[in-house]
Amino acid sequence: xxxxxxxxxxxxxxxxxxxxxxxxxxxxxxxxxxxxxxxxxxxxxxxxxxxxxxxxxxxxxxxxxxxxxxxxxxxxxxxxxxxxxxxxxxxxxxxxxxxxxxxxxxxxxxxxxxxxxxxxxxxxxxxxxxxxxxxxxxxxxxxxxxxxxxxxxxxxxxxxxxxxxxxxxxxxxxxxxxxxxxxxxxxxxxxxxxxxxxxxxxxxxxxxxxxxxxxxxxxxxxxxxxxxxxxxxxxxxxxxxxxxxxxxxxxxxxxxxxxxxxxxxxxxxxxxxxxxxxxxxxxxxxxxxxxxxxx
Length: 295
Fold this sequence. Notes:
This protein is an alpha+beta fold. The chain has two domains: 2-159 and 287-294, Ribosomal Protein S5, domain 2, CATH 3.30.230; 166-284, Alpha-Beta Plaits (2-Layer Sandwich). The chain is built from ten helices and twelve strands. A hairpin with a 5-residue loop joins β1 and β2.
């Protein structure tokens, strides 16, 4: 058997830090959304477990046991006692260290794909439990769509999305370390005016009110990341000038995105922004985080 898998990126419509958990991790409250930008993974039966990496940013991604794809595969084997192998090839399109969940989505795709390839029969709840041992965003990437994510991101509640939305996204500068961003946030603190309006954003998504959504976007990590990478600030202003009804950084950065009233406006903006930001891509919201097909 050979499978081709889309490992879809994510954006944060909102990201708030509401406290600190007993284990010392930040207690988050976010609206997370799968989008059509994706990495592609092919997996097929083999005696050994191997990974090769190609594509944009592939040179920055290790192909050893620290890679989240191999970590996911090894965790799945450990949890199930399975000793089968797989030949895996990862083609990168999601920017690296960007806050778009590239590594997490790759791990989610590996878990779901190997579950099929090896005939393990695990449900998504069990895969999400295993995925959480690999990274906080992996459970979301397994479930995908639009979710209210709380805790470290593992407590997921589906949120209705009235209609597809159209976005541009790109990484205007070097990536950022999530750990360093959260450390700086702890030192700086959070201003009330930087907090997103999660409830308003959720209502806007359910109603398909793109203008209200644009006004409700927010990310408490953005001021810190903007200071560390000033190009983020310019990129957001450029997206707003292109006609977006709202623009923000996603995750801990350094990628930014903008949302538009309709596909035509988004397509025109993507063409113009790509003249300055060659990695700019148009995308739309997606209903799932992982898509598998047999080839």
